[in-house]
Specification:
Elements: E1 5-9, E2 12-16, H1 20-25, H2 33-47, H3 49-57, H4 71-80, E3 95-99, H5 107-119, E4 123-128, H6 133-139, E5 144-147, H7 154-161, E6 167-170, H8 178-193, E7 198-200, H9 203-210, E8 221-223, H10 227-238, H11 247-257, E9 262-265, E10 270-273, E11 277-281, H12 293-311, H13 321-344, H14 350-354, H15 357-365
Parallel strand pairs: 3-4, 3-6, 4-5, 6-7, 7-8, 8-9
Antiparallel strand pairs: 1-2, 1-11, 9-10, 10-11
Length: 367
């Protein structure tokens, strides 16, 4: 059995090699945690085989959570998932806005929006450029599409809808047209003024790199950069090249420099930090790197951020709700990739991954 576990804090760091022999050798130094984890995993294997297979592939926590069992962090995500009941009305479980979509990029906002719906949001609005709207509508009748992002009154048009939205995902398919970026800048300011959570991805991160003050200190923002985007943000904030020798320290420092906002650095392992601690999501995915997987992450994260903030710290056992949401979205995305790859191998696409969202979410986070 292989258990991936990394524990990293703002005042120190440590690493446990994923190999079993090394874990056994360090069991006494870890206060018996390795032995406890092994016994717990064996018990789960007997009583819950599907989840046991998932736990074998991923688990990482901050030292404050180290004595807790592996199952606990999955439980924290489960705690924020709202119950399905006939007493609710449409919209209560999430109304998510996607800001992005231009002539060249129409798939990304669709991927983010449809994933949000499949995770459990009730409604998804896509605010895109006029030329992108008919294409995005043709992908699915499930999305509410607003062709306003390239208009002179874009900020005002989107602002009309903000009171109805629980979270915003900014960047999928946005592109770098100056008009669109200027409009999105105004939309972000309006979003902050209304205290609405915002997930920023793709070319939304390009905008932030040009103007870090746009989101600095906004505690309801989550950034989801890949390796290149992270490096660009680092250079914009610190005016120096990124030192890649210690990625955990780098994400901790970047989050702190941005006012302790939550940052998700996507990569071989996903690193998540709020400037106080670092979580590592090492859920097994696959070697397939088709375009669109980041949109699946941002769309699911938009929903989970809303649920986590609605549930509050009492449901996350004192952990940051945004960290719990980010860890859940990373785990879900990686497992969807893993499940799709088992079926389609090298031909796996993001559409195949989205088809796995329902069953994967149930396996991971439904009690």
């Amino acid at each position: 059995m292989r258990v991936h576990c990394v524990a990293i804090g703002a005042c120190g760091r440590g690493k446990i090699d994923p190999g079993v022999p090394r874990m056994a050798a360090r069991a006494w130094g870890c206060g018996g945690r390795a032995a406890v984890a092994a016994l717990l995993s064996a018990a789960i294997a007997l009583h819950w085989p599907p989840l046991h297979a998932v736990l074998q592939r991923a688990f990482s926590l901050h030292p404050a959570h180290a004595p807790k069992d592996m199952e606990n962090f999955f439980q924290l995500v489960r705690n924020i998932v709202p119950a399905l009941t006939s007493k609710k009305h449409k919209g209560q479980d999430g109304r998510i806005g996607i800001v992005g979509g231009c002539q060249e990029y129409t798939g990304a906002p669709y991927f983010a929006g449809i994933t949000a719906l499949k995770v459990g949001a009730d409604l998804t609005h896509v605010f895109c450029a006029r030329e992108a709207a008919p294409v995005i509508k043709s992908y699915s009748p499930e999305l509410i599409v607003h062709p306003v992002l390239d208009s002179s009154g874009a900020v005002e048009e989107v602002e009309k809808w903000l009171p109805r939205l629980h979270a915003l995902v900014v960047g999928p398919g946005l592109g770098r047209d100056s008009l669109l970026l200027n409009n999105v800048r105004g939309i972000l300011e309006a979003t902050k003024a209304r205290d609405i959570p915002v997930v920023i991805d793709a070319d939304g991160l390009w905008l932030v790199a040009q103007q870090p003050a746009l989101i600095r200190g906004y505690q309801k923002a989550v950034l989801t950069p890949n390796r290149v985007e992270f490096s660009r943000l680092w250079e914009a904030v610190f005016s120096s090249p990124l030192d890649t020798t210690n990625q955990s320290d780098s994400i901790l420092k970047l989050s702190q420099a941005l006012g302790n906002i939550t940052v998700v650095q996507k990569g071989e392992q996903d690193l998540i930090s709020n400037g106080q601690q670092v979580l590592v999501c090492s859920q097994e995915g696959s070697g397939r790197r088709c375009g669109g997987q980041g949109d699946l992450l941002s769309g699911s994260l938009g929903v989970l951020v809303h649920w986590a903030l609605l549930a509050g710290p009492e449901k996350t056992n004192g952990s940051s709700p945004l960290l719990v949401a980010a860890w859940g979205a990373c785990t879900l995305t990686r497992e969807c990739n893993h499940q799709a790859f088992q079926k389609y191998g090298r031909s796996t696409t993001t559409t195949d991954m989205i088809a796995e969202v329902g069953t994967t979410f149930s396996k991971l986070f439904t009690t």
